[in-house]
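Shall we go through a protein fold together, starting from nothing but its sequence? Please make up or recall a protein chain and show it to me in full. Go ahead whenever you are ready, and we will take it from there.
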Amino acid sequence: MAAGTSSAIARLQQRLFCEERHDAGDDLAERRSGDAGGLVSKWRQKDKLKTTAVALVLCLNIGVDPPDVIKISPCARLECWVDPLSMQPAKALETIGKNLQAQYERWQPRAKYKMHLDPTMEDVKKLCVSCRRTAKSERVLFHYNGHGVPRPTVNGEVWVFNSRYTQYIPLSMYELQTWMGTPCIYVLDCSAAGLIINNFRAMMEQRAAAAAAAAGGAPAPGGGGGAGAPPDPMREILVLGACGGNELLPQNPDLPADVFTACLTTPIKVALRWFCSRSLLRHDGVSKELLDRIPGRQTDRKTPLGELNWIFTAITDTIAWNCLPRALFQKLFRQDLLVASLFRNFLLAERIMAASNCSPVSYPRLPPTHQHPMWQAWDLAAEMCLLQLPGLLADPTAEFVPSSFFSEQLTAFELWLAHGSADKKPPEQLPIVLQVLLSQVHRLRALVLLGRFLDMGSWAVDLALSVGIFPYVLKLLQTTSSDLRTTLVFIWAKILALDRSCQADLVKDSGHLYFLKYVDSPEPGIDNGARAQAVFVLAAVCDGHPKGQALCAAANLLQILLKWLRALLPVLTASPGNTLLGKWLCICLGKLADNQPEICAAAVRDGAADLLAGLLQAQLPELRGAAVFALGSLIHSLPRARGPAGLPGGGPPPGGEGGAGAGGDEALPLLEMLVVSLLVKSNVVYDASPLVRGELAVAFARLVRGAGPALAEAVGVMQDTIAVQQRKHLELLRLQQLHVQQARQAAAEEAAAAAGGAGIRRTGSGSSMPATDADGAPVQPRGGQGQLQQQQQQGQQLDGALDAAPLPGSMSDGAALLYTLLEQVLLLATDPSLQVARLGRQVLALAGLDLAPVAVPLARPGQAIAGGGSAPAGFQLSGSGGALGPGAHSLAGSGGVGASLGSLTQKFVKSSRSWRSGFAASSSGRVVPGGVGGPPSSGSPPSPQRPEPGGGGGGAGGAAAAAAGYAELMQTGFSRGPYILRSTSGAAVGGEPGAPTGVPPASGSTSFASLRHAGSDAGLGGAGSGDSGALGGSAASLDPSRAGSMSLLLGEDGAALPELPASQLVKLAADCFSRPMLEPMSSAWRELEGVKLSPWTQPPDGLRKAQRLREMEAARLRCRSAHSPKIREQVNAIETGAEALSAVVFHSFHLLLISVDTRGVVRVNNGADGNLLNAFHVTTGAPLGAGGADAPAGGAPGLGGGVARVTFARQLNEAESNLLLTGAADGAVRIWRAYLNQGLQRMASAWQAVPIRQPPVPVRQAAAFALTSSGPPLLYAAGGCHPDLLQCWDLTSEHVMQQIPVRSSPSASGCPVAVDRLSVAQSDPRLLLASCSNGLLRLFDLRASVAPVASVAAGKGGLAGMELEPCGKPGTIVTGTCMGSIRFMDLRVLADADGGHGGTGGGEALSCSVVRSVDAHSKGGMSVLVAHPTAPLLATGTTSQVVKVWTDAGDVVGAIRTQSPGLPHGMGPVSCMAWHPYNLYLGAAGSDSVASVYIVDNVPSAGPASGVAYAPTTVSSAPGGGGGERG
């Protein structure tokens, strides 16, 4: 017991379905669309411009001062560092011109320079036109020096000369712009330059307005603005002016006369002179002459002059980046090298000229920066350099000490990283960090810090890219330093996670080779996490980039990936280690081979398909999904040109071999047939992870789009099969409708003749049932005998039609494989996961197909169906009772259900395929999908009688009863809702004019459940649609409508190429590189940002969880000590509003009752007062009353939203936020989170736990489930089309751990059995008890083998319930039969069985010793038996509305008749019950809308918990041993 308790506690500490991938909602793609995609276009300049022509215009007129300028003495004289008075005017003018050109050439040496000294207007015009002709569409720079002419006019005109230099001629900027064109930049070094800018802009706006008026449009105010407005006329024009409109140029003799030009072209020289003039260094021997002798070159960063230039560049870049808007910074400082230099130096001009009360101006206008604190850093760096200048000049051997500027700035950046975040101001040192990358001394430290910054998120990467990181890190890929590799790989992973367009730059510079060498490097210092980052970079290089794919393939990337996959395969399949690397190896392989037939052929030839198939067995869903993605990428997704082998261009497939299946245009290459075969036969469609199944849908979409013609035959056969199935469906529903009408007529006649006569009797639930004769056959009503016989004959004719339908087995191997693929596509389109179903429907849409639901009649609760009061439990799927639907009859010569199912079981049990082989459909065998006998589910009242196989009754009465049973089976027994496969561009397949009105015109316009209501009483077509050929008389009649649905499959010309569904796995895998990956930032992101994206990933509160665990353990002890229990009172009777309830479960920590009705609506009620907290449909999450809970809107993705009958409900993660696990009769498992809160419920995961058939057919045997309560979380399931196979699902790894065959003999040649109930031991999750349809309970000890270790006779009359280790007592079994008896068995005492049951595991059948047998309900009708997990209590319920509580020794505690007058609400026949796991509360529900909560108390205790008001009830107790109240 202690071991079991510790195992249960360890189980409670596990967290299930709390990873980011656990989101099966349909809005996953929309929810994740808000990523960093909008950031990509902001940093990369669309138009990279260069200044290719420069026009220099100098109007100096040396020797003649302008009339409006009064010069002081002394005043500034130098022009381009030349004193014009030191030589002849002509010579001086020429020298100044040459110097100016030389100064510009240092910034842009490749431009074409043209100059005019003291020009005329015609000279300027020729100069401008010539420069524009040279530059073409590039930028032209116009430099104007107006120191020898008057200041500009108020109209913004500048002055030039006439030809005789006797007059000043005004030159309008409007004319100048006409000659210059755009793009251009003006440098205006003259007084009152601000006037020019203001008037220039006004003129350009007038010009734009005139152009718009001529074009008939009205420009927006301001010349720009919103959508549809004309562009800004000044958008391509930049202007730099020396001073404002009312200012004159400074005349400080310490500065040159053209100080503005000097700042723009010789910034270091001006800056040092200005600094020295204001510094104490001028008294320490640092003179102007020494400044001109600073050693070094500006391009050599190791010299004093080069370092000063480097620091100046870093500081001005930093000031601009911190002060300017991002877009403006990109335009001015990252688009054009010359423009960036001029604006960078313009910041210096603003600082220097501001000291002379002069304000340089610009367009676009820049904010003031002359007081920015970074200028102080420049002053310090200049001072530290100039202090060394005298010593360096005196001693040439003296060593220059580099500045500590960059080291100090890196330290400041590091401090910001320790405290900064996205919500704070960005680090102002970021541009400096990029400059440091140029230094070998600080490069490693700068890279590490830069990597830490990029790791903060996509916003950080975008900031770094906007600063200009990209060319730096691209150039660093050319280095061979090994210490930089890991950091560089990390940085590039971050960049490509944000912007995949960088792949072209990598390929252009052969940067991909750097990462190839890193991945293939054998150095032990490279961990697999860093290697995965390099693989991600290579995958990004190949992502949709044919050139990148070709270059990577040429560099042997394929061989490198396969080498690592082979090395990691044993580890990846056995443990969850190296997940990141393994996942990206598969994704990179898929990206490399995407739509590259040659690479695909090489991959398959080198064993890639086998390696990926091995990964389908991996424990982690991400690895399995990555393997499916890679396999799918080996399928060519582009439509093939019509050629001899169906390949693009009509060439032969790789390897020279043809395809399998059909020949000619419709052949698939052999390579793709191999891949499709792997995907189909591995049955990935039954993987428990929606992520994996979603990748399968993406892979199938590639095949459908790329090889449409090859699917034409399979689609045609599937449409024929569905059409014939629907014809039979209509015929049977019409037969059932006639039977119901005649039964009502007979009942009315009997009631009129003699009220209460023998012809009609009342059942316990108050429903009327037709009378039966002595043999139990229904008595036929008066009239209609011949019509019923005619209907029976029509049903037999339909059987022949079905057998004559095209069978997959008659097709070629290739076509049969594609038919199986199409079946799996239909499974995906009707998947229980909303996300996967959406992807599956997209696959069908690519084929031009859609699923249209078909109406199903609804039987009212308690409505009469067939005789004996137990139909449809006695309804058989085989026999002579009439036509019962497609798949209900075996092939000719077979022995009915048993023989078909037996051969199928033998096939799968003896096969050597993978674990998924048990899910194979075997369509060609047309196997009966149901079992024989047994109750429909653990939560439904079973049949007290077990009819013999084949005893379906005879005559018209048997046919009518069979059809009536089929109608109810249609309602609740379909594995998915029935549908027809139709063309999206035309009518439904087989939709002739006589088609039933129940078939909607569009699947999205009418809900599935509303169609079911439409046909509830009048059949499919209503009262007037009675043509038996409504869905087509033969397969041939389907050809015209099918032609419309094949337009895309047959590759018609002119059709636009449809878009493939996106891979969610690749998106999720790539997202991890956009998020913080380094600690502690990674943990902080998960706690702050990660929980916003996926709230369920939030780590649990440790203190709260520990407190809950302590409370759970204390509750177990209290329950275990309930040795004198007594039914105290009824807490509440809850009116749910449902038609019938099928499953109930309690919340672990609150008195909340979760109930599910037969329509699949989940309701959460407060057990104390009955208040409804939440209600939603289990298939879609649609709230009650929103067109969803009762009828999922828009046709539920599973096409079964209206028929989901939940029979199993349990809680997961009980110590945290509980999850609700539900199991439906069709085997679909769905897990919901946040289900207590109205409107917040969200599907965490969903999968098909048992195999089913497509197209859907009625399944008689509902799926059975059992969930372990200790040890590893396992879910056992059985049912579907292979009810003799137990599936053991591991909820942690989300895959099938084991398949257990349930055989009746060692050779499996006898009649197989179906499992209808499961129970798992509390002490060990590998001990399993299965109730079989042959009347045996089989005990499995999966620790030893899959063979049953013991068999126990279930008892007479069928089981109502069973528990292995009830109440936590190891080695015991308790069973309850429908006849009303409870048997207590001891597993430790085994005896020989008396019956002639088949052997188990090769030995004789064994029987457990029956310790005690109690006649619990003498009248029979027991429907439910449940045991408390820890308290020594059992509970039973009956169809006669009696609930009893028992001790684990078989003594009755008390009984309640739920229809007692003292109860506030009467409850119908009990259909399901559940104990609270940690309290003595009992919940019971019936086949009506009432659910009741009872409390059982220990007599010595003080009573129920305070704060809860309990309603009084009538309780009758009896001493132990007897049956108590007679039930």
Notes: The radius of gyration is 42 Å. The chain has a mean pLDDT of 76. DSSP finds 42 helices and 40 strands in the chain.
